[in-house]
Amino acid sequence: MRIRENIPISELTTMRIGGPARYVIEVESIDDIPKAYEFAKEKSLPTFILGKGANTIGHDNGFDGIIIINKICGIRQNGNLITAQGGEEWDNVVEYACQKNLTGIEALSKIPGSAGAAPVQNIGAYGQDISQVFDSANVYDIKDHSFKTLQKSDFHFSYRKSILNTSEKNRYFVSSIALKLSIGQMPRPFYNSVERYITEHNCTDFTPQGIRNIVSKIRADKLPDPKEKASSGSFFKNVYLSEAEAKNAKLKNIPVYQGHDGFKINSGWLIEQAGLKGKLIHGMRINPKASLVLINESATGYSDLAKARDEIRTKIQTKFGFYLEQEPVEILDNPNTSSTTTKGVK
Length: 346
Ligand SMILES: Cc1cc2nc3c(=O)[nH]c(=O)nc-3n(C[C@H](O)[C@H](O)[C@H](O)COP(=O)(O)OP(=O)(O)OC[C@H]3O[C@@H](n4cnc5c(N)ncnc54)[C@H](O)[C@@H]3O)c2cc1C
What we know:
Layout: E1 2-8, E2 20-27, H1 32-43, E3 47-50, E4 56-57, E5 63-70, E6 75-78, E7 81-85, H2 90-99, E8 102-103, E9 124-125, E10 128-129, E11 134-141, E12 146-151, E13 172-180, E14 182-183, H3 192-201, H4 208-222, E15 230-234, E16 239-241, H5 243-251, E17 257-259, E18 262-265, H6 267-273, E19 280-281, E20 284-286, E21 293-296, H7 302-320, E22 329-330
Parallel strand pairs: 2-5, 3-5, 4-22
Antiparallel strand pairs: 1-2, 6-7, 7-13, 8-14, 9-10, 11-12, 11-13, 15-21, 16-18, 17-18, 19-20, 20-21
Helix pairs in contact: 3-4
The structure holds flavin-adenine dinucleotide (FAD).
Residues 14, 48-56, 70, 86, 111-114, 116-118, 120-121, 123-125, 164-165, 172-174, 223-224, 226, 231-233, 329 line the site of flavin-adenine dinucleotide.
C-alpha cells in the first residue's frame, strides 16, 4: 500500500482540474483495502474511491480527505466468464476478450478507465453497455467492513446508472468484476455510426476483433485522447424521455432515437443546434467532432469549468426546455452535497 500526501487531483484525473487531496492511497492487494479504510478512520477523514480519473473532476480547493485508488490488476478466463481486477485498464479487458473471440464488450473498446469503475455508471457505447454481460463483482463493503459478492441484479443498472452512483454511492469498493460473454458476433444491425463506417470502408470482418478495430477507428477520429487533450469524455448525459415526451419532441422536429434503454435525444445534437459546436467558453472547448465532449484547453480551474457548464445548460434549457445532466463525478469534501443537481431527465 502506497500513501502519499498533498497530491493535486489535477494529476489524477483526465480533465486535469482540482487542487490537492490530503492523502492518496494506492491499494495493491486485497489486504490493502481494509487497511486503507482503517487509515481513514484513524485520521477521521472522508474517503473517495478513484480508478483512472477519466470520469472524475476535482474542485479548486482540493479534497480534505483520502483518495483510495485501486491498483490491483489482472484478467483471467474460465470458459465464457472473464474476471478482471478492479485496477486493470478497461480496454485491456476488451482486448483480452476479443483475442479469445468472445463477444459482448467489443463495442466498448477504447473507453478510458478501470475495470472497477466500469459498472459504476454502466459504461456504454455503440449499442452495448456493461450491464448486458455483467455477472457479478467482488466488493469491500465500507458499511460493515466485509468482503462480499454482489450479483448483477443487485446493481439496478440503467442508463449511466447503478447503485454505485446512486443509492449506495461510496459504499462499495469494487475489487474485481466478472463478465459473462459469448462465442459469436454482435447481432446486426449495428449502431448507426458503425453501420455507416462499414458501408464507407467496405468492412467485412464483424468478429469481436473486427468490431473492435472499427469502433477504435471511429473513436480515434472523433474523441480526444486523454493523454493529449484534457477531457472527461462526454460531459453531459443524453436526454431520456417518456413515450409522451418523445412524441412531443418529434412534433418539434427534434430527432428522437429508440434504443434498448428507451427514448433518447442526443445531447450533442442539442448543443450543436444551439450554435455551440467548436466554441471556446471559459477555457473549455466544445469538441468540434463530438459536441458532448468538453476539452479543457485553458480553464484556470473548476470555477471556469462550472461557468462553461452553466452557460451551456442555460442555452439548451432556454432553446429546447431540456436540462443537461452532468456525467462526470465531482470529488466533494462533503459527499452529500452536489453541484450537479438533476432535473427533467432520467
Ligand atoms: C475520452 C473519453 C471518452 C469516454 N468515453 C466513454 C464512453 O464511450 N462511454 C462511457 O460510458 N464512458 C466514457 N467515458 C467516461 C469514462 O471513461 C468511464 O466513466 C470510465 O468507467 C471511468 O473509469 P475510471 O477508472 O477512470 O473512473 P474514475 O473517474 O476514477 O471514477 C468514476 C466513478 O467510479 C467510482 N469508482 C472508481 N473505481 C471504483 C472502484 N474500484 N470501486 C467503486 N467505485 C469506483 C469513483 O468513485 C467515481 O464515482 C469517457 C471518458 C473519456 C476521458
